[in-house]
Write a structure and sequence with these properties.
- The chain has about 150 residues and is mostly beta strands.
- It has a single domain, classed as Lipocalin.
- The protein contains 1 helix and 10 strands; from the N terminus they run αββββββββββ.
- Strands 1, 2, 3, 4, 5, 6, 7, 8, 9 and 10 form a 10-stranded antiparallel β-sheet that branches.
- A hairpin with a 3-residue loop joins β7 and β8.
């Protein structure tokens, strides 16, 4: 019984700690991407196209040590942590009205996250993403914008 109680308390504490560390959440990013021709994109289909995730969501969290993570919902409705997915997150700049992070996935892609948000986490996000992994994948560079709140 004590073990069960201790487990419930740890889960409750960890959940409240994680929620307390949410910096902002952003939804439905939309914008444009430039698709490079290659193995999966014929020359006739290369170029600028609308891009986005109509049901996409991002949560930015900050842990007790000051490290950031970006949790995102992908096209298959899975929630994934950038860190757990192999991303290396670097804080470039932070002030009362913005947060800029770079996330690198070595050999796969690089992302620039510009959160123009107030102290309450309200504002906008622009995300630039360059995908360049091998010939078996689509190579593209995109810029999208999402509205953020908390």
């Amino acid at each position: 019984m004590r073990i069960l109680f201790a487990s419930v308390m740890m889960i409750t504490f960890e959940t409240s700690s994680a929620l307390a560390g949410i910096v902002t959440k952003c939804e439905s990013p939309a914008g444009y991407a430039y698709y490079f021709s290659g193995a999966l994109v014929p020359q006739a289909k290369a170029g600028w196209k609308r891009d986005g995730l109509s049901k996409g969501r991002y949560f930015v969290t900050r842990d007790a040590a000051g490290g950031y993570d970006i949790m995102f919902t992908d096209a298959l409705n899975r929630t994934i942590s950038s860190r757990e997915d192999g991303g290396h997150i670097v804080e470039v700049s932070q002030s009362d009205d913005h947060l800029i992070l770079i996330v690198t996935y070595p050999g796969i892609k690089v992302e620039t996250w510009y959160f123009n948000i107030d102290r309450m986490g309200i504002g906008k996000l622009t995300i630039s993403q360059a995908k360049y992994q091998g010939d078996a994948f689509v190579h593209k560079h995109s810029l999208m914008m999402a509205v953020c709140s908390r």
